[in-house]
Amino acid sequence: MRAVRLPILLLAAHGCALVSEADLAERMDLDGDGIDRPTDCDDLDEAVGRPQEWLVDADEDGFGGTATSIGCASDVGLTETPGDCDDGDAGVFPGAAEQCNLADDDCDGETDEGALLAWYIDADSDGYGSPDTVREDCEQPEGFVADGTDCDDTNAEISPETLWHPDADGDGYGAVDADEAACRAPEGTVLDSADCDDARADVSPAGVEVCDVEGADEDCDSLVDDDDDSATGQTSWYPDTDGDSFGDHLAPVSACDAPALYLADRRDCDDLDAEVTTECRWTQVAAGDYANTCGLHEDGSVECWGHDIPDPAGTFSSISAGFGYACGVLTDGNLSCWGNASKGEDEFPAGTFTQVSAAFYHACGLTTEGSIECWGYDTGGAAPPTGSGFVSLSVGWYAGCALDASGNITGWYSAEGIAGTYSRVDAIYDGCSGLDPAGEIEDASDPKAGAAPDGPFATYSVGILAGCALDAAGTPECWGSNTYGIVSAPLGPFVSISVGFHHACALTADGFIECWGDNTSGCVEAPN
């Protein structure tokens, strides 16, 4: 026992206070929970005692896995909260935000729930996908995009950023200086912004450049009229070399606007002589029944072409062509006939006349007193009416017809008159026809050409197989048989028309003749 006490006595001798066992015990268990240091995990908190078994929290995310370890609550890497399904990843624990990473981040047994990204197919590669084809994935699949607002995934030009332009004139092209971004076209808008005048439907890149006085750029190519090679509707202009205000029809140029020293008038007969102007132009044309045609010049001379018919001598006021021959009224009122006169067609009566009409093998004339005289082959029909008061006449193959001052039509040979009032008369194959005040053509019988179409018309002419009429604008409309092409008339406009057996001819307002149909012996080749 002495050996034990000796150190205490020695310590006391050196001046150190003696610590009792009770004091020592108190000092070793400061919180008095009966657990001495260092075993006590917290010797200042009697509620915290000796080390216990805890869950290992290796990733220090506050949740432990299945592994355990003995320690204090304050020890790093230990926890009492269970549920960590991956204690090696601090981002994985119950309640963690689920990430799109093919892992169970919130430890609920499901993977990527609510975290998958929606991707939309972008077939046209414009950066916008179709909402109709969607794929959920963490990574962007090839050919897919995050934006699914494309309304046309077959057209890269269509997307929510597409600019639409107002098309006020409805021509399919929009104004370049206004636009609205949208995936689908707002009402009244189009994709194309190339319209240079959105107030005119005839002006756009699809328009046709036409010659016009305002110089509009109808096709939006910044070129107008003669500066645009695609321009249409040019006028023919004729040089006026001799300065007589009449152009030479043999040297036309086509342009929107008249070049210097060019005119629209093409009636000059000699552009090197200012004294010679329009005498060569035509004032009447007569298409015959045997591939023959004659024309009356402004100076009264007559020129014929086609089947073996000569030009007559003299100055005429009117002409008519029959079957291989023609007759005319000279300016002194006398008659003249020429050509093939085998049936006595040149044995005309004496007297003065205002009009003549030649048919198959016979002709009739209207005297200055208004009476009718006929000559040539006797068709075996009735004689022409007697008396005066007639103002116009026409004879056909088996018909004679006359119009009096009251507008009545009288017929002879095989023809009968027509009831009503008329302004023009024309013999058909075996009857009469007339133009009434409303511009309608009335037929007394069905000619070989068939019934005329509805008018109104300004004038007309009927041949054996076809007929043609002109409306107020001079546009021709033909009917009947097109065996020889008579029904396929040119556009005109014309001021008069004459239909024969195989062909037809018409006169323009400026004195030119156009013929069409069968060109036997060159009967449609007018010598303009």
List keywords for this structure.
528 residues; single chain; disordered N terminus; 4% helix; 2 helices; Methylamine Dehydrogenase, Chain H; 3-stranded antiparallel sheet; mainly beta
Topology:
Elements: H1 2-13, H2 21-28, E1 52-56, E2 68-71, E3 78-79, E4 117-121, E5 134-137, E6 144-145, E7 163-166, E8 180-181, E9 189-190, E10 235-239, E11 253-255, E12 262-263, E13 282-287, E14 292-297, E15 302-306, E16 316-321, E17 325-330, E18 335-339, E19 353-358, E20 362-367, E21 372-376, E22 390-395, E23 399-404, E24 409-413, E25 424-427, E26 432-435, E27 441-443, E28 459-462, E29 466-470, E30 476-480, E31 496-499, E32 503-507, E33 513-517
Antiparallel strand pairs: 1-2, 1-3, 4-5, 4-6, 7-8, 7-9, 10-11, 10-12, 13-14, 14-15, 16-17, 17-18, 19-20, 20-21, 22-23, 23-24, 25-26, 26-27, 28-29, 29-30, 31-32, 32-33
Describe this structure in words.
The chain has helices spanning 2-13, 21-28, and strands at residues 52-56, 68-71, 78-79, 117-121, 134-137, 144-145, 163-166, 180-181, 189-190, 235-239, 253-255, 262-263, 282-287, 292-297, 302-306, 316-321, 325-330, 335-339, 353-358, 362-367, 372-376, 390-395, 399-404, 409-413, 424-427, 432-435, 441-443, 459-462, 466-470, 476-480, 496-499, 503-507, 513-517. The protein has 528 residues and is mainly beta. Among the domains are: 119-153, no CATH class; 282-522, 7 Propeller (Methylamine Dehydrogenase, Chain H). The chain starts with a helix and ends in an 11-residue tail after the last strand. Residues 1-14 have low confidence and may be disordered.
